[in-house]
């Protein structure tokens, strides 16, 4: 397999993992989750896994059977954004003082994920949580706070694997500065007035996807490595139906169907905060 096609394949598998993760979380409200962040954190843990645990993690993460090839793919992914000022990816492993993890995992974390490995005293959970949370805040522009609850730590905790991902970039074509009140539909009968960001007419990638019963629009950021893909159901109560079609969806093939069209995109101004225990979701992903 050529290097470029292998990178593409790993990226495609990552998209599949993201859609599986979204479905497994069974959102009943607004959520925000970074499959890339989850995949990197678990990828570090995977490098130290063996036996049944290794097999289950490999299946859930949609990575290669060959651990060396998976490590190379994670390395290329980490390097790709290492010097990009719009996205910051930071990995870290905290090991309980007096406990040891496999030297191979430490080597892989440092070499393949650019991760630091630090000893910490989990017999002092409050102090340990402060240390970890301050590091995460520093890596995310103070956007992610209190990621670790001190009550989740105890002297038997061996290791905590952390990935912090921070993204900030301007739109290629900004929205207008003035907000307007407009209807946001909750279902066919009910709507609420929300602050809406007003777009300007611009050429965006656009498609009407009949098989998904939705409209797809892709809006680029200044850094063209990044874009937002929006899937808008044709029906006001069509979100649940659309979500049910996402599992196993070959998203890259759908993106190729988008063509440039002159449109004006208005979007609600929104702030989303979300926290979840991924254990159950990962078990569902592994079973798919």
UniProtKB/TrEMBL annotation:
This is Serpin domain-containing protein. It holds the Pfam family Serpin. Gene3D superfamilies: Alpha-1-antitrypsin, domain 1, Antithrombin, subunit I, domain 2. GO terms for molecular function: serine-type endopeptidase inhibitor activity. The keyword Coiled coil does not apply. PANTHER family: GH10112P-RELATED, SERINE PROTEASE INHIBITOR, SERPIN. Belongs to the serpin family. Keywords: Protease inhibitor, Serine protease inhibitor. Residues 19-287 form the Serpin domain. GO terms for cellular component: extracellular space. InterPro entries: Serpin_dom (IPR023796), Serpin_fam (IPR000215), Serpin_sf (IPR036186), Serpin_sf_1 (IPR042178), Serpin_sf_2 (IPR042185).
